[in-house]
Specification:
By secondary structure, this protein is mainly α. It contains 11 helices and no strands. It has one domain: Orthogonal Bundle (MetI-like fold).
């Protein structure tokens, strides 16, 4: 009796497909690799054997990079490497949560605004009012009223991003409603719920995915400068903004306290933006035809 096993042609075929994808989308692959490496490092930080990021060692304060402390120590003797890696957890969590909630809320409000006229009049006036307020001032005001915590900073950064997603989805919905296949479905008596789910919602997914990556990058930067200004996460929680804020006064003496968290912040934002650009090229039908 023949033994059923794995097809030996499958693995080479998958390798060829993967190599072809890398050749066609090098920026997307590079961005995904960097982003996955950062996420994986932040996720397994507790099992890497690092020092406690808030453990004080005043005897070894302001020590430069060495074998014991690859990123040096800060003014309180805390390991900059540990603080940077644990700070990545905060920054990535804020970025991903803001992107998820802003996209979800903006999708719902944008669909309703683009499909129901009286909802459009109400929702878009609210969104216009939110967009009239500078996002930094809105976030600082919210943090001053609600208090300093990770949950509150996620809410404070999410609120200014919702109008942008809403306007994007509304524009897509209003454009798709004029397409012949949607008009045919309406003429055939298709229910609004079915029309939204089958014909309109799928068209909003590609631009939403790309927009979510840009929101994630912007949220990471927003969390960093809010923490830098003292309006972000509590000082006892390591984040890239807090680390840079604490080290700025000693930059001329101990530049590593600012340099390493700044490099990780820039690298993360660059990777997220590169992924967004790659997804835009991948999901845009016109770009695919050109390629």
């Amino acid at each position: 009796m023949a033994v059923v096993g794995a097809n030996p042609a499958v693995a080479p075929s998958m390798r060829r497909s993967g190599a072809a994808f890398v050749r066609r989308h090098p920026t997307l692959t590079g961005g995904l690799f960097i982003l996955c490496a950062l996420v994986a490092t932040a996720a397994v930080a507790p099992v890497l054997g690092l020092r406690d990021p808030i453990e004080l060692d005043v005897i070894n304060r302001l020590k430069g990079p060495s074998a014991e402390h690859p990123f040096g120590t800060d003014m309180m003797g805390r390991s900059v490497l540990s603080r940077v890696i644990y700070g990545a957890q905060v920054s990535l969590m804020v970025g991903l949560c803001v992107a998820f909630f802003a996209t979800l809320i903006g999708l719902v409000t944008g669909l309703l605004a683009g499909f129901v006229k009286w909802v459009d009049l109400i929702v878009m006036r609210v969104m216009d009012g939110l967009m009239a307020i500078p996002s930094v001032l809105l976030a600082i005001a919210f943090m001053a009223l609600a208090g300093s915590s990770i949950r509150n900073i996620i809410i404070a950064i999410t609120i200014p991003e919702i109008p942008r997603v809403t306007r994007l989805v509304r524009g897509v919905v209003m454009s798709v409603r004029e397409q012949p296949f949607v008009e045919a479905a309406i003429a055939a008596g298709t229910r609004d719920r079915v029309l939204l789910r089958r014909h309109i919602l799928p068209t909003t997914v590609p631009p939403l995915i790309v927009q979510a990556t840009y929101i994630c990058a912007a949220a990471i930067i927003s969390e960093a400068y809010l923490s830098f200004l003292g309006a972000g996460v509590p000082p006892e929680i390591p984040s890239w903004g807090n680390i840079v804020a604490e080290g700025r006064a000693l930059f001329t003496v101990a530049p590593w306290t600012v340099l390493f968290p700044s490099i990780l912040l820039a690298l993360t934002v660059l990777a997220v933006n590169v992924v967004g650009d790659g997804l835009r090229d991948r999901l845009d039908p016109q770009m695919q035809r050109r390629m």
